[in-house]
Fold this protein.
Amino acid sequence: MRLPTGVLTFLFTDIEGSTRMVQRLGSAFDVVLERHNEIMRQAIADGDGIALKTEGDSFFAVFDSPLGCLRAMVEGQRSLIGAGWQEGGQVLVRMGAHTGEARLGGDDYVGVEVNRAARLSSLAHGGQIIVSHTTRDLVDSNLPADVDLRDLGDHRLKDFDEPERVFQVVTTDLPTDFPPLRSANVKTNLPTLGSEFVGREAEVTRVADLVANNRLVTLTGVGGSGKTRLAVHVAGTLVQRFAGGVFFVGLDAIDDPVGFDQLVAEAIEGPAGTSVDETLQQMGPVLLILDNFEHLLGAAPRVSELLHAAPELSVLVTSQALLRLRGEHALPVPALGLPADSTVEAVSESDSGALFIRRLWSTDPSFELTVANAPAIRDIVRRLDGLPLAIELAAARTRLFGLDGLRAELAERLASLGGGFADAPERH
């Protein structure tokens, strides 16, 4: 095969969390990997690209046209989302592309521009598409109508002295909200939400303001009300304010306060032999997200001790119960806003209706909200009381029941939603 030369666009992709998937699925992962490889090869071919290397769950491909590469990435993500992964749950693939001068080394490409593309791709999260400023400049004036580019700012690439301007590829039918890029200038372990954050503009603003002005903020609400998603989303917008880092600590795995310090130490990657208090004190401005604290209310005094030991520490808690500490500022997380009536406008403009529709798009990108189906969606989200987790589970069941069938099923037996996603969290 004669490889192209000149200015090319280099694409790198890989599955996020593939090692954990192999450990969990064993030999069943082979089926997942084969399907992933088929999807990626087809997407690359449809973009007139050449797949050069497939190592494990990673792809390296080159394109004469940066627009062809853009199409391949978008269509690849769409196909991956719509693949219906029964074996291992959702398969999230990070993708990154950069355009530069190609240098051939035998039957492969070598050189700084290839390395730049590889380092760029490693910044992304599963399901995310990013491109360099060079690629962005070449495609910006010819973007498809449903594609946009979001400026993510300057980020340092490993082994490169100068920062790289990074842009995220955004479409209406793919997830758009991700934690901060995993670059050298960002210290964070915020989890990937896996799907787009929808609505709650007022709550986002309120939480961000509380965290900026108070050291201990607790988001309260029933399970499934969206406390965790709200906290993670807001924390992602605040990373640049906390030079020491933004760290997520999930507490639902333990029920003994003795284990609290160990979880925090693992999240902040504190050095061995140094107490959590001392580590946080030395890190400067840090934001800790303590998730599902109702599991560990006995550790509440320890939070107070950490705040006293580290004057630049801030803590954002999600819990079904208050910690009842001095200086705690509580914010109840309400259910999502419900449609005022059954019109298309009311359903699409309400947060609950918008969330249901976005989740439908993840399984059926061709779905359209119409006068005929808007009343069913309005009834569904109202019967679910606007609870985000219940709405997401219901949207997933639409493929099985259809909208009218789901509405009838909810009217008869709301408890049937318990089947939901196999990997759905117990709390939300």
Summary: The first helix runs from residue 18 to 25. The chain has three domains: 7-171, 201-332, 344-419. DSSP finds 14 helices and 14 strands in the chain.
